[in-house]
User: Fold Bifunctional NAD(P)H-hydrate repair enzyme from Oceanobacillus profundus.
Amino acid sequence: MYIVTAKEMYDIDDYTISEIGLEGKLLMENAGRAVSERVIKLIRETEPVCIFIGAGNNGGDGFVIARVLLDKGYLVQVVQVVPDEKITGDALFHKRVFIQCGGEVSYLTDLDLIREKVERVHVVIDAIIGIGVKGVLREPIQEIVRIINHSKACVISVDIPSGLPADEGIGEFTSIQADYTFVIAAAKESSFMVDTADFYGQWEIVPIGIPNFVFQNNTAKRQWAEEDFGKTIPSRHVHAHKGSHGKGLIIGGCSEMPGSLAMATKAALKAGAGLVAAGTTEKVISMIAAMCPEATYMILPEKDGYITGCTASPISNYDAIAVGIGLGRREETRHVVAELLNNAPCPLLIDADGLYHLKYQLEMLKQRSEPTIITPHPGEMAMLLGISISDLLSAPFHYTRDFAKANRVYIILKGKHTIITSPEGRQAMESSGNPGLAKGGTGDVLTGISLAMMMQQQELFDALCNACFIHGKSADIQIEEKQTYYDLMATDVIDGISKVYRAFPCKRV
Ligand SMILES: NC(=O)C1=CN([C@@H]2O[C@H](COP(=O)(O)OP(=O)(O)OC[C@H]3O[C@@H](n4cnc5c(N)ncnc54)[C@H](O)[C@@H]3O)[C@@H](O)[C@H]2O)[C@H](O)CC1
Ligand SMILES: [K+]
Assistant:
């Protein structure tokens, strides 16, 4: 599933029409038919339906839907909310076809009449405006939208709830509040944003015959799905030994936060790492060693229970290193992150307190020759960007892409919809997981799983997407099987990793 801005969707549309030769009328027919198929599954023939139609191609989709429903014996009324001369091009073509098939269209502007109509129907189909909306809705459309929103009818939007922007980061709007939205061809950015997602109601994408490669050439954003995990997760070879699955090092922990290191280490091993060493203070080792007997330990220098350095120890023979969890924010500890940024000869993941220290030495990121990965939650990402969390969440694709490109890092921006970004600006959204994950320690588990994935032979971007998938799916399976959003613990997410591998088995060889 691809994710697009309005501009990307128009480019995809133009290419399909002008270079491939699938005419606009045909795409509109496909769109209207595909939406009608879904509508027919939702409503009965006896339920009166009113289709509201605006001036653009979204309205054109509405005329196709009206024709299909009329033909199937539905009680359809069509209300055009703009004068006849505004209906042009492909939309006019389909309006004429609808009328030739016996359909009737009323152009209504009297708001009382519209209110009466809306009160009498069970279902409203909203084909007023699609991705072509500019700014806040003008009158009388704004008032018509209000009337529809106040009615008891089930509201089904075509492509996007009318009035809602397709792109992230757009401030003011008035929108239809849909119960269902059938999104044409590709997900729009706004269907994932905190301030706009709810207007869609339940939504689903309906394909309209645009070839896959056209999406690939026009957008760098997509959803990471189960099939992607199945296709990319590397096999475990029958002749494999522990060295085949990577040797990782996790540096972190302090006297007040020993558990975070234990959880990350255990999660890395559970997710498939061959060997994992935990680098920390002697005291923390004595606290966690029994919790994770499969790991090895590296004693690091300390002051008052906080790590002060790590490069005096051998860090060159690891395949990947993670730093930051439970590290603490003491100034002496900042040096640990600097040493690793300078010297880690392998992919380096920075999380939690490591990100706090990174803020003071961001310029070092560009000097690294090996990949760097950061795994912030929105608060940490906003801190690194120097903006507010609400600004970040209004346009997360934009902010993370710019930061990743400027600083040459991979980013996992954690959230309900986690966004994974590569230094080239490729972006994936991973949406598994549930509110049970909103608890201390789950980020440490993701760090451990990510470290393990980074060391399996797969492209680094895919590895990070798969780590998020395993983490979220583990939480989902635990909730399905035995737990609730209240009692899910980070350690349960570690236990659930085996269930993910059993549920989505990978090839053996
Ligand atoms: N994605 C595809 O491949 C296909 C999409 N289809 C549908 O087409 C629309 C986009 O159509 P477009 O004609 O570009 O724009 P709209 O229909 O969304 O609306 C334009 C219409 O709205 C008026 N308008 C804009 N802003 C406002 C405002 N603030 N207040 C009032 N009126 C406003 C503007 O004047 C225009 O008249 C897409 O969403 C799909 O549904 C194709 O049918 C199939 C291919
Ligand atoms: K619409």
